[in-house]
Amino acid sequence: MPPGNRRSPRLVRKTVVTGAQTLFKSLRSLIFETAHETEGVGELTESLKWGEPSFAPARPRVGSSVRLAIRDDDTVAMLFICHTNLVDRFRELYPETFAFDGNRALVFKTGNAIPAAETKHCIAMALTYFRNRTKASQPI
Fold first, then answer.
1. Residue 44: which residues within 8 A CB-CB, separation 6 or more?
2. Packing angle between helix 116-127 and helix 18-37, nearest 10 degrees?
3. Dihedral of the CA atoms 36, 87, 94, 38 (nearest 10)?
4. What's the pLDDT at 76?
5. How far is residue 27's CA from residue 7's CA, in Å, rounded to a whole number?
6. Based on CB atoms within 10 Å of each CB, which residue in 26, 46, 48, 54 is the most buried?
7. What digits encode the pLDDT tens for the residues 8-32?
8. Are 105 and 78 in contact (CB under 8 A)?
9. Separation of alpha carbons 13 and 19, rounded Å
10. Strand, coil or helix: what is 88?
11. pTM, entire model
């Protein structure tokens, strides 16, 4: 995208489809709340990736990013890096709790309650992905 046409995360949030805006805001708040409550994550950076708000630990090699995307069908997707095994792990842990989109996303429908504890667990797993992977590979 040419430099003069860059959109900020704030601008994207302001132009979100009205039907999904409340859901989007709730999920965004849950991401920041989870980061604050999860040991070792620290401050998050918010940027745009593929035109969508992306949230990642400010410190490098702590965790993977989490993105939010409004979809045309009045849903909000919480997207994760597809070459991680995160969504596969979420599917194993919570097969009946979430709607999934391949190995990329949890899908939330407007009007449905957000399963907060389970969603926060998934967010925490993403935000600590590299840190936990490194710890798991170290000798005991």
1. 31, 32, 35, 55, 56, 57, 58, 127
2. 60
3. -10
4. 97
5. 20
6. 54
7. 565 555 554 457 889 999 999 999 9
8. yes
9. 13
10. helix
11. 0.82
- Tell me what pLDDT residue 65 has: 96
Query: In the sheet that 99-101 helps form, which strands lie side by side, from edge to edge?
Result: 44-49, 52-57, 66-70, 75-80, 105-109, 99-101
3-class DSSP assignment, residue 123 = helix
Token pair 């995360």 is found at 9
**Contact (Cβ atoms closer than 8 angstroms) between residue 59 and residue 39:** no
* Chosen CATH of 3-129 out of 3.40.50.11720, 3.90.1150.200, 2.60.40.1580, 2.40.50.140: 3.90.1150.200
Beta strand residue intervals within 6-132, DSSP E: 44-49, 52-57, 66-70, 75-80, 99-101, 105-109
Nearest to 127 by CA among 49, 45, 23: 45
Question: The tokens of 105 are what?
Answer: 């996303």
Q: CA 50, CA 48: separation in Å to the nearest integer?
A: 6
Quick one: 17 exposed, middle or buried, by C-beta within 10 A (0-12, 13-18, 19+)?
middle
